[in-house]
């Protein structure tokens, strides 16, 4: 349901719908490869999440313009994603952090 999303520019909703479609296709492929890589039968993880047709796709768009005083910048609070998979479209600006090994680690920006 894209009704809460902006109507302008005119192609925004169509582009968002197509992006969501491509994310769902990517999730299907990732779950299939993970199933095989874990030694499970093909499609097992997809089945465990309830099937791709029923899979909830949640899309968040966060934008943080450059802050002239970075020490005052606020972002998304520390949290745990509750989804089976999380895909992040990164804009090559450092800032995304992961809690790993008991500490916060900044994710590397890797093009493509």
TrEMBL record:
Q: Mind telling me which residue stretches traverse the membrane in this protein?
A: none
* Residue ranges of every copy of the Isopenicillin N synthase-like Fe(2+) 2OG dioxygenase domain listed in the record: 59-112
Going by the record, the broad EC class of this enzyme is oxidoreductase
- Which molecular function GO terms apply here? metal ion binding; oxidoreductase activity
Instruction: From the UniProt record, give the pathway where this protein acts.
Output: Phenylpropanoid metabolism
Print the keywords alphabetically: Iron, Metal-binding, Oxidoreductase
Catalysed conversion reaction: (E)-feruloyl-CoA + 2-oxoglutarate + O2 = (E)-6-hydroxyferuloyl-CoA + succinate + CO2
EC assignment: 1.14.11.61
InterPro entries xref list: IPNS-like_FE2OG_OXY (IPR044861), IPNS-like_sf (IPR027443), Plant_2OG-oxidoreductases (IPR050295)
In its keyword annotation, does this UniProt entry include tRNA processing?
A: no
Q: Which SUPFAM superfamilies match?
A: Clavaminate synthase-like (SSF51197)
Name under which the protein is recorded: feruloyl-CoA 6-hydroxylase
Please give the organism.
Answer: Ipomoea orizabensis
């Amino acid at each position: 349901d894209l009704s809460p999303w902006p109507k302008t520019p005119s192609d925004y909703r169509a582009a968002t719908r197509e992006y969501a479609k491509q994310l769902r296709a990517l999730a299907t492929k990732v779950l299939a490869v993970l199933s095989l890589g874990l030694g499970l039968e093909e499609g097992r993880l997809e089945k465990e999440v309830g099937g791709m047709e029923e899979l909830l796709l949640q899309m968040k768009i966060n934008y943080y313009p450059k802050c002239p005083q970075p020490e005052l910048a606020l972002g998304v609070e520390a949290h745990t994603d509750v989804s089976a998979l999380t895909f992040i479209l990164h804009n090559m600006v450092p800032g995304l952090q992961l809690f790993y090994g008991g500490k916060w680690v900044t994710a590397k920006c890797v093009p493509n």
